[in-house]
Write a structure and sequence with these properties.
Length: 471
Amino acid sequence: MKVINWKAVQIAEQDLMQALGDASDEQDLLKRIVICLFKQRDLWESRGDSFGLTQIVWHQEQTNKLLTDVLSVLKAPRKTEADEMRERGDEAYRNAINARRPEDRQQWMNVALQAYADCVDKNPSDFSALYSIGTILFYERGISEEAITAFRMAATFAEPYSSYHAALAWLQLGYIRRCRKEMEQAYEATEEAMRLQPDWAETHFQHAISCALTDRLDEMKESLKRAVRLDRNYWFRACTEPDLMAGRAMVRELVRATLEELRQEASQEAADAIASAQAHIAELSRLIQGVVELNLPASSGIWHKEQAEKLLNEARQLKAQETYFELLDAIAKAKEVQQICEQGITSLSEEAHNAVNNKERELEAELLARKQEYETELKALGDRISQALKQAEESERELSNQRYALRSEKQKLLDEAKEEEKKMARIRQWYDRGSESWHNKPIRKIRIRNSRMCGCFLQCYSRSFNWSCNL
């Protein structure tokens, strides 16, 4: 299995790139392509390896991109040369414009015209060169027929790529047709330009002129309005345009009436904008008052309110002048007031929201600190309670021990008392028996034989008597 000849790949790609730039004609370019394909022949000998095949496909895709560029060159074989000729013509045209002497200007214009012609010869679809040719032919040499052809071709080739340049070419056609008194053709040209660029004031203004020259007065009025609404400067152009103001009295009066309608519309729009601005300021003031009542910061809202009130006063002063440009400025300032109020409401809401969030965070921090403090106190209280409970248990245990000791002592005393009682009972029985026998005998016959026994008897008797009293 053979490996890919990467050197052949690099050489082939370099040759293809060189072929695009150095080929003198189509035959030379094709020869270079054939040589490159022969140099790539060794690549296909490694198609048995899947990795090598993947690399071949990738490099073939790169080669296909180069071949696509080759095909584009074949379709426009001298595009590079055409670009060079157009640049040469642009340079000559700039030199002609800046020339101080008329003969120098004419010579540079001839060079520019020849360069543009060579550019179109090499690339017939170059609308920029065609537009330049039309400009030189009409405005420098006064040749209208050939200029019309050049501008028409420029409009055709420019439309797929640049609607602006196409519309510009149509406007030039309309102007040339108007100079040639071909009013219907001028109307069609400006209408086409307006279709291509509906948001360009110049197309509507030129179409208004074409409508005025072809007695389409209602259409002229609408086109003039659109032009002025798109660009306020066309108000002055309408007042100074010869085809509008120096023509028939009917056209002139209609133009003035149209401009007056625009001024009245602007006046009404300014009044509405100022009223809306006042409503926005009132809304902002209400929000500021509510925020202040909640003890929240409102500095940003107050600043926006002050700026809005300042601009509103300026808008009112401009509105009082009741001129078209001042009315437009008043509308712009009133709309700016609305924007400032909306920004103020947004910033005020954000400021209040941030203040609430900060207050909430402070409260959360305070609550957390208090919670920790309470937890510490509760823990200390729990410890004290536990200690007190332990002390109470110890005291209860001591009391229980003392109670037990007292019960034992009491029981012991009771037992002793019972023993004494038994003894006393025996003594009492003995005494009773002795007393009975004592009483039965005459006193004179009793003789105490032993004084010691008598003392013991009396002592026991007294103890028995005292114990009985205590019980």
